[in-house]
């Protein structure tokens, strides 16, 4: 017997049951090390230096350091290499990203008196690239996505199964539960919901549990771009002040496939399923930044800057589909039959919501050694527990109360340290090196995988990311007093844990659904070329 269930309940729908997750909010709140080739080569440590597009983005007061107008642009080419390790099964993948890192114009307006200049500028900066591919293969696993969906549904939507079959089910219940039931991944046994893996193939002939072979593949695309309008001033070549208004554009696309094959159980067939997810997030936001640089002597510069939260209005568009072949439990006679089922979420579904990222403080110090060398340090702090999700129309109401409570508990303040060195070999040639460390904002037990993570609609997978390390170097050459070129190369390293679904504990802190994590290594190699002209 073959049964096809196509759930096109509503052709155009915006429903809150889909739910934005805390891990999505964190992902959209972060940025990469970015800017001009000179800035990246020095680890982004430009908060006290100014006179560079990277410096303006780090501290708006940096625009006051300019003594001429400038046009500048930067190209970047990155290779994103990923490696996954699931219980010894290793897979590797890579993706190339090519884009403009920044394009900017700075206008210099000299004045008489103590205020020696008022400068203004416009810049485009790519703050983050989401593009990467990775695959995870795990064989002989002892848990399944179906176990997670069954337990989650029993706890959060334990209603009669026929309610999941109604046309309005997706507007009433968690999407993962509705899709899981109608797609054959879970079954109603009268006392709750159980995994389809608990059918006749659940145990071997010797009584031991069967195992699962899993493959999970992901393709991510997208970016966060910032359009900055900055004004600044120079007071007596000692104090520099700046103000920036930023408009941010964000695009993110996720396409994933979760495949499981169940081992055969003696005379019984095993079965398995494909579970596809597609998510597109788009929207815009705005931010305000202010900063100051103080130069008490020619050899020393001190900087401080405050970056407000970015206030986003975002839209998620999503779809998911399950194709299942295996054993299904008939809720009427509680007998298992072999079946094929397909289920699909509503078409053109979307959710509009608000996201507020955490604010950020930057404190900087730089030393200038004669006319030959610069040493610079930046320290940043941002409290990610302040990230907030909210309804698009009613603000931060109870609809997102649980997600925001999880954010407050599971995320913490994080530091970023940037260091840079520049040495002028000749008046035309400069050598540079830098390092940056970005601390993971995850609370200790949460980072260790000891806390449950709520699904984002039908997307159950997430990563627990570790610290990020950047190593960079570069050269700069001035062809004429006006025209220059800079080159930089950076290496970004990060280790994470990938969970295709969350483990679940009961009220007695006993693990009832296990989830085998996958080690995920991300190494990104980026080359940047900046061309600039000052006049």
Number of domains: 1
Proportion of beta-strand residues: over 45%
Give the C-alpha Rg.
27 Å
Average pLDDT works out at 91
CATH architecture: Beta Barrel
Find the CATH superfamily. Outer membrane protein transport protein (OMPP1/FadL/TodX)
Q: Low-confidence spans: pLDDT under 50, at least 5 residues?
A: 1-16
* Major sheet: 14 strands, antiparallel, barrel
- CATH classification, class level: Mainly Beta
In terms of topology, how is this protein built?
Elements: E1 13-14, H1 22-27, H2 37-41, H3 53-58, E2 70-86, E3 89-110, E4 115-129, E5 132-141, H4 145-156, H5 161-164, H6 175-182, E6 186-188, E7 193-195, E8 212-235, E9 239-262, E10 272-297, E11 300-307, E12 311-329, E13 336-344, E14 349-356, E15 360-369, E16 373-383, E17 388-391, H7 401-410, E18 413-424, E19 429-438, H8 444-447, E20 462-478, E21 483-499, E22 504-505, E23 511-513, E24 518-534
Parallel strand pairs: 1-14
Antiparallel strand pairs: 2-3, 2-24, 3-4, 4-8, 5-8, 6-7, 8-9, 9-10, 10-11, 10-12, 11-15, 12-13, 12-14, 14-17, 15-16, 16-18, 18-19, 19-20, 20-21, 21-24, 22-23
